[in-house]
Amino acid sequence: MNRRLSFFLIAAALVGAVTSIDLAAQGRGRGGGPPAGPARTTAPVDMVGTWVSVVNEDWMWRMRTPAKGDTTSLPGLTPAARQVMDKWDASMDGRCEAYGVGGLMRMPGRLRVSWQDDNTLKMESDGGQQTRLLRFAPAGPPGAAAAVAPAGPKTLQGNSAAEWVRSGGAFDAFMERGAGAGTARAGALRVRTTGMLPGWLRRNGVPYSENAVIEEYFTRFSHPDAGDWFVVTTTVTDPQYLTQPFITSSNFKREPNDSKFTAAPCKQ
């Protein structure tokens, strides 16, 4: 990786983390209500396209299956989690539990993002052949995402409630592109997922439970040399199996088309 691109990724991750915190605060009331209209037409950023994961940290535990019992760089696990991990063996490698919502964004591979309808963003993965549906409330105040997700049978991807969060004045000014170019609106996608089946944080069976809560912030960036990127900051909170929240940031780069997107199903 060249020095310019490396610097860009580090800067993007840092700005993404700070922006997510600021946007979260505004989503709780400082930033005012969202613009009226469908999520597709009021989006502050464009997430549509095919994106490839760029694994620039935790390579040894993401690009290959860790050894049984390896929990390096994970938070503390409860005794109940250790009991689940002890049941894993190499024959279970590739099972669908590794591609549940708690681990999918950490898996190497590609995502294809499109609008299923005006208020549903669809994310398809080639690895594990999974589909996430991120549902926006038709209208409502900031924080309304928590009430969007429908009740129904539990699935590996769970019920994901989404909302746009916007930075407003100061950060929009930071994104100014020059005289005559207008202002690039800044913002992020917030997703809160519950109601999922149990899954794995890693392919070696490190578990999260069906009672976990998974919150994500997708922050998008563009650079004239490095192209289009997004950073997804994910927090998995699961008192049943984790002694503290598990927080990660994962990078994705947009590809020119989906010619390299080849879906491979997981093992049941």
Task: Pick out its properties.
alpha+beta; 268 residues; 5 helices; 13 strands; nine-stranded mixed beta barrel; single chain; two-stranded parallel sheet
Description:
With 268 residues, the protein is of the alpha+beta class. It has one domain. Helices cover 18% and strands 31% of the residues. It is built from five helices and 13 strands. The two termini are 36 Å apart.
Number of helices: 5
- Taking all residues together, what is the mean pLDDT? 84
Q: How many distinct domains?
A: 1
Low-pLDDT stretches are 14-32, 169-184
Strand order of the largest sheet: 1-2-3-5-6-7-10-11-12
Strand content: 25-35%
Tell me, briefly, the overall form.
globular
Share of residues in helices = 10-25%
Q: What's the count of strands?
A: 13
Give the biggest beta sheet. 9 strands, mixed, barrel
TL;DR of this structure?
The chain has 268 residues and is α+β, with helices and mostly antiparallel strands. The chain has five helices and 13 strands.
Structural topology:
Blueprint: H1 3-30, H2 39-42, E1 49-54, H3 59-62, H4 79-85, E2 110-117, E3 120-125, E4 127-128, E5 131-136, E6 159-166, H5 169-174, E7 187-194, E8 199-200, E9 207-208, E10 213-223, E11 227-237, E12 246-255, E13 264-265
Parallel strand pairs: 4-13, 5-6
Antiparallel strand pairs: 1-2, 1-12, 2-3, 3-5, 6-7, 7-10, 8-9, 10-11, 11-12
